[in-house]
Structures are given as structure tokens and as C-alpha cells.
Amino acid sequence: MKKIYAGLIGFGNIGTGVVRLLDMNRGLIEDRLGASIVLKKIADIDIETPRDAAVDKSILTADAADILKDPEISIVIELVGGYQPALSFMLEAIKAKKHVVTANKALLATYGDEVFRAAEREDVDIGFEASVGGTIPVIKALKECLVANRIKSVLGIMNGTSNYILTKMSDEGQAFAEVLKEAQRLGFAEADPTFDIEGIDTAHKLAIVLSLSYGKKVEIDSICREGISGIAQKDIEFAKELGYKIKLLAIARERGEEVEARIHPTMIPFNHLLANVNGNFNAFHFVGDASDSVFLYGQGSGMMPTASAVVSDLIDIARNILKGISRRVPARARSEETIEDIRLMPMEEIVTKYYFRFSAVDRPGVLSNISGVLGANDISIAAVIQKGRRLDGAVPIVMTTHESREKNVRKALKEIDRLDVVRDKTVLIRIEDENGQ
Length: 437
What we know:
It is a single chain. This protein has 14 helices and 19 strands. It is of the alpha/beta class. It has 3 domains: 3-134 and 303-340, NAD(P)-binding Rossmann-like Domain (Rossmann fold), CATH 3.40.50.720; 138-299, Dihydrodipicolinate Reductase, domain 2 (2-Layer Sandwich); 347-431, Alpha-Beta Plaits (2-Layer Sandwich). The strands form 3 sheets. Strands 7, 9, 10, 11, 12, 13, 15, 16, 17, 18 and 19 form an 11-stranded mixed β-sheet that branches. Strands 3-2-1-4-5-6 form a 6-stranded parallel β-sheet, sandwiched between helices. The protein has a two-stranded parallel sheet with strand order 8-14. The longest helix has 21 residues, at 303-323. It is elongated. The model has no long low-confidence stretch (mean pLDDT 93).
């Protein structure tokens, strides 16, 4: 049986999962591939700590050059993470005409143009299924299954940590800080959870999805991004009363020559599929002009789910090697020469529905004062909820709106927050309707 040699750089959690999966399903993989994938070398700065995977110590090395300079190794698996030295490893592997598999979303979102163009120039393949959605086949769906479609919209729950926190807050009534501590204790959240709870991890994934959906590149800092740290339990309760759940959503829509792209806490109706994605699961809702609605759901992280996506890419590339071909499917579904800078719709021009929570003094005329400012800024009220008095004499007033323009909303809230009858800064959460289009 023909052997295809691979080298693994990065023997951490996901790297361990890859070794385990290749060993656990070796016979099945060989039957389906018609060849054997052999991990010839594993490189890591720590080769002494025991891993939960059976491996011959003779293949371990602390020097990645042992993989990058080995002429027998045709596929390099990069699981180091971060920007450097991962980027250097990738570019050196590509220059040596080696194919690359990676799960490195941050690197691809930031330096993807350099990596993908180098791969096209050297005629090698890049597999990055594991970079978005873990085990969920998001990349393959966009590159191949939906390639004949214009992607009208993308809605995604792309971060399991944030989704876990919001689920626990909703189901158990716990405060954000309490759930975050629990998520850290269980290993769902990092000691520094900023990337997850402030939407940075989601922005990396959305940037990759945008390039595949619209054939364009985007700087992640240009994507409007808000995290979940400001979500209070009272807003989750009001959302339920109004028929919504709160999720951290990544949203993208084609708007003529522009693309709408934003990440923020969002209220979605109970009957939307994404509203029922709970715990640390991820999900993606695509709408194509021919396919209509497509929904993908599964584990977005974790050792074995992510390893499943890495090994899937490994097998895809191995099949190409057996056929003596490469780049049958371009990395971003088209020639790199056609990838353009994306033109994002300014956030101020976004039109959507809104939830507001005002903290107002309990006196006659307050509601009319607030609604008057909204009306003067072309914001139409859809529903109002007013609760009982707090000890400080303020009451929460909740309003939802019909579709309104973001710049009008921001202007109105500035005016309202300056009113002497408003005690605290107004809470704003955007709303998405049932169909997500």
C-alpha cells in the first residue's frame, strides 16, 4: 500500500487529537483512501510531557526544520497557533512545495492573503476546514457545495464560549460573571477570555467566511464588533418576555456593491433555528440564491471534533497526491487574482430592529419624552414594557422598534441619555427577524 508522509508541527491538545484519530481509525482511513497516511515526524518545543496518544518517541523532535526540510514529507500540519512562528513555518513549507493543513483562524484572517497567494504560486494545497466551526464542514460547504450560489446572507454562532455563557444565563438565571468563572473552571473559557467574550475570535472566523462567500478580503478591525460582557440578566428576562433569545451573532449580507458585516449580541425569535443552539455548540445559517436556507450545526471546538476537520483536510490532500494533482479546488474557491478588497457598508447605514432598555425616573410624561425623541429621529416603536419602581425611584422602560437606521438610533440615544429623567446609559441590543435574510 502506498504511503503518504506527513509531519505535525504542534503537539498540543489538537495535535494530540490528530495523532489519536489517525491511530484509532487507521484501517478505516486506509480503506477509504486506498493508501496509508504516516506521521513521519512530530515537532514541538516540549517533547517530554506525556500526551494522551500512543506515539513512538523516535519520531518526536524539538526542531520543526526536521519536518520542513525532509523531502519525503509531502504534507505539513501546522497546529502551533498564533502568528509566529506559525506563519514562517507555513511559508517555508509552501516554498518547499509541501501542502499545508492548519486550524489557525487568527493567522489566516490576518495573513491569509500572503499564505494563499504563496500556495497558488507554488501550486500546493492549503486545508483549513478546522479554522472555522471546528468539526462543522463550513469551508467545504462554501468552497464546493454552495459554489454555484450567490450567498445572500450568513448568520452564525461562531464561538462556543460565548454561547455557553449566554445559554447558562438564559436557562439558569445566573449573572455573567458567575457563568464566566464556571466556564473557566470547566475549560470552556481561557484564563483571559477576551478573544471569546469580546467577539475577536468570531471576527477571525467571519473574515474567513467573507472571503469565501464574496470572493473578497477584509481587515478584521473593519468589522463592527461588540462582545457579550455588557449583557445583564434583566435583558435576558425582558428578551424572553418579548419572545426572543440573546445570542452573539456574526452577520453578513450582500448589499449590492457593499457587504454588511457585524458581530454583536442579537435578539432572535424562539422559532429561529439559531435560537435553539445551546451550550458550547456552533451553528451557521447560509441563504443562497439557489439553495435557499442551509443550516449547519455541531461542535465548534474541542480536541476530537477539531481533529476530525484536520484529518479530513489531510485525506483530501492525500487523495490529490494519489491522483498526481493539486489545487483541484482553489483555496478560496477562485483564483487569488480575483480576490478583491471588500467594501463594507458603514455601520451607521445598517437598518435593523432594536431593543432599548431605559432607566427612567418614575414621573408622568417620561414615556412621551423618550418616544418624542425617537419619533423625531424616524424611529418607530413596536412594543413597550414598563416595570415597577426600583428603590432609587427609577423604573426600567423597555422598547422595541420597527426597522430603523443605525445612525438615527445613535443620535436619538445620545439625546435621550442627556435627559434629566434618564438615570443610566441606555442599553441597546439589535434584533434579527425570523428568516435571517
